[in-house]
Amino acid sequence: MKSLDELKELRDKAQKDIQNRDTGDKVEIIVGMGTCGIAAGAREILQEVMKEIDKRDLDVRVSQTGCIGMCEKEPLVDVKMPGHDRVTYGEVTTDDVSKIISNHVVNGNVVDDLVVARLEE
Amino acid sequence: MEQSIYRSHILVCGGTGCVSSGCKEVQEALKDELKEKDLRDEVKIVETGCHGFCEKGPIMVMYPEGVFYCEVTPEDMEELVEEHILKGRTVERLLFTEPTSDDTIPSYTDIDFYSKQQRVVLSNCGKIDPEEIEEYIAKDGYEAVGRVLTNMEPQEVIDEVKDAGLRGRGGGGFPTGLKWQFAADEDSDKKYVICNADEGDPGAFMDRSLLEGDPHRIIEGMIIAGYAMGADEGYVYVRAEYPLAIDRLQKAIDQAEEYGLLGENLFDSGFDFKLQIKKGAGAFVCGEETALMASIEGKRGMPRPRPPFPAQKGLFGKPSNINNVESFANVPYIMREGADAYNSIGTEGSKGTKVFALTGNINNTGLAEVPMGITIEEIIYDIGGGITEGKDFKAVQIGGPSGGCLTQEHLDLPIDYDSLIEAGAMMGSGGLVVMDEDTCMVDVARFFLDFTQSESCGKCTPCREGTKRMLEILEKITSGEGEEGDIAQLERLAENIKSTSLCGLGQTAPNPVLSTLEYFRDEYEAHIYEDNCPAGVCEELTGDYYVIDEDTCIGCTACVDVCPVDVISGEQGEAHVIDEEGCITCGACAETCPVDAISQA
């Protein structure tokens, strides 16, 4: 270790690895993982979400939820930005994931044509 | 770190407490289950150090949600992975239930045991993998040493520690900054920094948990100390009975060397520092600094008279500075956050926090870090969850075998160095042994004296002979042979041993006797003059069979069911009788009796 900058570089990288242990306010992506969700391919969606987050180097909390009753529309993906409504996207495909993340999570623009519900904060 | 990103981290406690309650098996079962469900690439298992809540081990914390599961078993893993990881549903039955309110609490930070603590030294314990230096660095680790080496003069470092008001956490409470100054002021070609991790008090495990849970913090503290006083070499003296602590510390040292955080020319400052572990063979006296240094030198671990003090003539005859594990662990925080941030915590004379090990008859056995000045009542009841089985609090032994006991009347005493001394106890390293109404205080004094007596190194006569004589008298009293004059003799011996022993071991050995004599003299007197042990502990002073009071007995037959030797007889609904010939005085009947009709004859 030769300088504080070198340490900082190492720290930034290391922090990314443990950022999901920070339970503070941040963007949340919730994937429906009830039996219905899993049957409709939620696992692949979840893996795609993780890949996309990694690629874009985002600090997002990814969690799962059980069946919420809209089995018809699975796979369901919710995006919850701090201070905004929780938006539910339905019948999400792996191709939609990058669109949802770039438009909604990064730029704050809801992808209207995929929305199936909005829950007020 | 095989993969750069995981959706979930499962933190499994790997402290010694949880290892003994089965965390290794839990971790194996968890791994198998994740493999089974093809989740190994999505979920990372992190083995951490002690979370402090040893009573509830094995402990797991699930991220990103921060859900806290306790007392988990390998059999729980299938459900846990299926429900929590796959379906995102919390497994209610594995959550913590607050004993005071019966509420289940999902989140780590909302549990009383944690929410009433202030974690400075333990901030990383249970949150990071102690075997990955990157995780320590992610938590701002080695930032302090980087700033110190690149921006500060050694004297500035010492001044900062002085301003912070840090006092030695090993028990004595000597100002750490001043100690560093003494070593810094010596002119020498070689100096040493030594970390005293020879934690040996019965019931104390703060230092072990720190070394196991956050070893880099201690390394960082020691490098800073070395720079401040001009020492380029350090030793950590750890007892060999702490294999996990030694293993993790060695890994930490190796990793720090790999990253150039130990070795030559650190941060391009020209400062070199190397560190090594010395394993102690477990003699209590080696916690005394001169004995500890003798032990490192390969000699028999015995103390020597001071002066010369270690700062003048220490290890291998060179100026040396010895601090306790927890003292070093405070240093990175002080240097990173500044003296003012540190000394805003605590009381006038005692700054910062203190880690206590809660043991004995207390619900939440474990480690608690609290700001100085908190009361004993807050620690025992708010954090410790009160006395087990709803019994009454009797006393707490603070400071281990060198300390004293405090009673009901001290519950509102603020815990800091000075008020504890005033009350006849001492901070010690931080062991808190809580005792309930069924504890015999004479027996407690005998226990601690038995410990110090067998740990006395034998070099000086007052300690070698005096503790032996005191122990003999205590054994006499607890076996029913006590006689007039014993108490006076104990007091005389105690004063002599205190004032004439060579080192701290002897000087403090009589403390448990003196403080129990002060607060529980009537118990000693009952043993000697009435042939009675009020707590019913000392066998020779209690009857050799139990009797049932026939007026109180309701004939429920509960005692008949528990008696291991089947000597209780009687019809249902009528008074029962114990055959005194066959009774083995196990007390099982008395414990189970719903109307307290059974007592020792």
UniProtKB/TrEMBL annotation, chain A:
The keyword Protein biosynthesis does not apply. GO terms for molecular function: hydrogen dehydrogenase (NADP+) activity; iron-sulfur cluster binding; metal ion binding. It is an enzyme of class 1 (oxidoreductase). Pfam families: 2Fe-2S_thioredx. Its EC number is 1.12.1.3. Keywords: Iron, Iron-sulfur, Metal-binding, Oxidoreductase. Gene3D superfamilies: Glutaredoxin (3.40.30.10). This is NADP-reducing hydrogenase subunit HndB. It comes from Halanaerobacter jeridensis.
UniProtKB/TrEMBL annotation, chain B:
Residues 544-573, 574-601 form the 4Fe-4S ferredoxin-type domain. Keywords: 4Fe-4S, Iron, Iron-sulfur, Metal-binding, Oxidoreductase. InterPro entries: 4Fe4S_Fe-S-bd, 4Fe4S_Fe_S_CS, NADH-UbQ_OxRdtase_51kDa_CS, Nuo51_FMN-bd, Nuo51_FMN-bd_sf, Nuop51_4Fe4S-bd, Nuop51_4Fe4S-bd_sf, Thioredoxin-like_sf. Its EC number is 1.12.1.3. PROSITE patterns: 4FE4S_FER_1, 4FE4S_FER_2, COMPLEX1_51K_2, PROKAR_LIPOPROTEIN. Signal peptide: none annotated. It is an enzyme of class 1 (oxidoreductase). GO terms for molecular function: 4 iron, 4 sulfur cluster binding; FMN binding; hydrogen dehydrogenase (NADP+) activity; metal ion binding; NADH dehydrogenase (ubiquinone) activity. Transmembrane segments: none annotated. Pfam families: 2Fe-2S_thioredx, Complex1_51K, Fer4_21, NADH_4Fe-4S. Belongs to the complex I 51 kDa subunit family. PANTHER family: NADH-QUINONE OXIDOREDUCTASE SUBUNIT F. This is NADP-reducing hydrogenase subunit HndC.
